[in-house]
Amino acid sequence: MEKLTPEEVYNRLLDDYDIKSLDGKIQFFLGDVDIIVKQKDVVGNIVQEWLEGWFKKREIAYLPSDNPQLPPDFYLDPDDKKHSLLEVKAFNRDASPAFDLADFTGYAKAILKEPWELDTKYLIFGYNMSDEGIVTIKDLWIKNVWEISRSSDKWALNVQYKNEQINKIRPATWYANKAKFPLFQSLEHYLSALEQTLVDYPDTRALSIGWRKKMQDSYNAFSGRKITIPRWEDIEEIYQGKK
């Protein structure tokens, strides 16, 4: 089995496989009836399963994760679950990204213990589906989590907030030319926004106590790279403007 990095997977799909030139369809068989599926909301999950099939057919090493709530989806080195981590996302290219990046509270806890999750690469498929159910991949990206994240009016980090509950971390429209909220410039700024959201959200205020130092120490110990997470008040104007 060949071991590839996330970037190499991206390049193979884009250049060698020429994925943007291909057409596909989703078929469902039951008894003597078969149909072409035309519901766009199922494409995202199918793309992830298709990628696993692509790995198998090309004898590319991988190991699927057993936790769908947190990244990654795949370990590209089955012998090393701390490097070459890949998360797969897909969205209708005719609309804004509607997928979740991670469960908010679970993720904030998990990265303290497993800081390598922060180095997960996001392989993102932007697809179109025609009225006849023909699927094409219009765009493909490989990104770090902070490169597809932003702030928001209410929270330092863009999240799904319903019924006074924060559920998920939500993405930015990273490919837009003009956006109200800019993308985060670094991992450290992304973590600053995450910490501030933990502080501001009553259900995670207790978790936020000491979180910044624990996160710095944990990531430094794992990566050997010293990071310093700034206080949100020192960078807030960059991402939310003057108030």
From TrEMBL:
The keyword Hydrolase applies. Pfam families: RE_NgoBV (PF09564). InterPro entries: Restrct_endonuc_II_NlaIV. GO terms for molecular function: type II site-specific deoxyribonuclease activity. Keywords: Endonuclease, Hydrolase, Nuclease. It comes from the Bacteria. This is NgoBV family restriction endonuclease. It comes from Prevotella vespertina. The lineage of its organism: Bacteria, Pseudomonadati, Bacteroidota, Bacteroidia, Bacteroidales.
